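Input chain follows. Return structure tokens only.
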Amino acid sequence: MRTGAQVVVLDALSEMLYGAEMKRDNLKEVRQHGEFEFHEVDIRQRAALEAVFAKHDDIDVVVHLAALAGVRPSIANAPKYYDVNVRGSATLMEVARAHGVKRFVLASSSSVYGTNTKTPFAEDDPVINPASPYAASKRAMELMAQTDFRLHGGDITCLRFFTVYGPRQRPDMAINKFMRIIAAKERLPMFGDGTSGRDYTYIDDIVQGVCRAVEQLDGYNVYNLGGDKVVLLKELIATIADVMGVEALVDQLPMQPGDVPLTMADLTRSRAELGYSPTTALRQGVEKMWAWHQRRYHGTA
């Protein structure tokens, strides 16, 4: 999606979840679609943030996607997640406000719904039972944004992403990981009996939602961005294997701590107020991702 906007990108290139070299490769890929200015900055580094905002004194809106991601690794390193996601977000919001930026879009997560049993998950549902430090940190980010809005005004939108996938997906996430394992003809670990479900959302649909949120910032708002269909884990594995044309060898293992059995987005509000409408079905998205996966990892397709 091209908007003609001038873009300044900040990223710490942290190697906590995967190597910085892969992130640099991603930046090279993105540059094929348009130029942007890049700064290697950690959002906890106030002086570095101040320097970027001072250099670009005409910044109109901040789209805050920076965070340590991942439910399972957050259980092993909770303090780090709270430090980056909560303290870092507070620092970024404060510096942006000090430089006159009053428009802010913040990436949250479906994980804030935690162990909610009501489905689909709606933005007004209680979000008081996070199942992991990652989920708690994302909810804290939302609360900080809401407090900032009440104290200082401006326009702040929080977007709850539901299991995003597609080209350049993190290597530790399910679809990317499953493709590598199946391609290597190794045994794929399936946690649980395969009936856990996720609302998988293709990256193009997420980008559509983010751009619409930027265009329609107005006060404080929270929106779900999902794929509009729940897919069971066993169905996901079968779809990936079918697209790849390879049999998946599955080892069933116990459910992991922090995992939730189901995510399902209620898109009523985001459809009505943002005009958000996901269009990429799972198989279509998996086919696109497999084509990219072959180019990135195998030099084919």
